Amino acid sequence: AGVHPHNARNWSEDLEKTLRALLALCECTTLGEIGLDYHYDFSPREAQREVFERQLDLALELDMPVQLHIREAHGEAMDIMRARYKQGRLPRGIMHCFSGSWETAKAYLNMGYYISLSGVATFKNANKLLDVARNTPIDRLLVETDCPYMAPVPMRGKRNEPAFVQYTFARVAELRGADPEQLAEILWENTLRANT
């Protein structure tokens, strides 16, 4: 559970109470998707930054990992996160649907974050993600669907669904030259560790 940056303009005390109630459920293991999205700007950027910071504080208070949605805002997100990291105020978490460069991934990894790759890693024009898929330390790598979006090749153009994660996984295994069965076990362990 979390307030996506698209909905940051709707933040209120009542919404925070509802969010806290959801996060108290045993089924809820992660606060997210939260972050900054400067691609669509459905919420004013100032509201996005404020709600992002408030939810980072909430994750620390509740000792929960976060799942971060950062789109076309890595510079500003990085500034916020680095400042908090230096102050010891950055919760652990996952870079959801990561589509940045290897240099950006290294910065997030240095702050303790996991890198999660979606179907974008299978796209022909996703050259910068190839280095991310190959170089992310194996114990900090995840794969995901980002359902219903970002359907991987060969399912492009279809509504994404959880079963399609197999295609992203296969591409990442290929890029790493990894044994699929061993990689599957490692990624499962990473998933469990990232969400606790």
Explain how this protein is built.
The protein is of the alpha/beta class and 196 residues long. The protein is built from seven helices and five strands. The chain has helices at 13-23, 45-62, 74-86, 102-110, 127-135, 165-176, 180-194; strands spanning 31-37, 66-71, 93-95, 114-117, 141-143. Strands 1-2-3-4-5 form a five-stranded parallel β-sheet. β1, α2 and β2 form a beta-alpha-beta unit. The longest helix has 18 residues, at 45-62. The radius of gyration is 16 Å and the shape is globular.
Topology (SSEs and partners):
Layout (H helix, E strand, L loop, with lengths): L12 H11 L7 E7 L7 H18 L3 E6 L2 H13 L6 E3 L6 H9 L3 E4 L9 H9 L5 E3 L21 H12 L3 H15 L2
Parallel strand pairs: 1-2, 2-3, 3-4, 4-5
Helical segment count: 7
The overall pLDDT average reads 96
Distance between the termini: 15 Å
Quickly give the structural class.
alpha/beta
Please state how the strands of the largest beta sheet are arranged side by side.
Answer: 1-2-3-4-5
Q: Which percent range describes the beta-strand content?
A: 5-15%
Task: Tell me briefly what this model is.
The protein has seven helices and five strands, in the order H-E-H-E-H-E-H-E-H-E-H-H. It is α/β, with parallel strands linked by helices. The chain starts with 12 loop residues before the first helix and ends with a helix.
Task: Looking at this protein, list some descriptive labels.
196 residues, alpha/beta, 5 strands, 44% helix, 12% strand
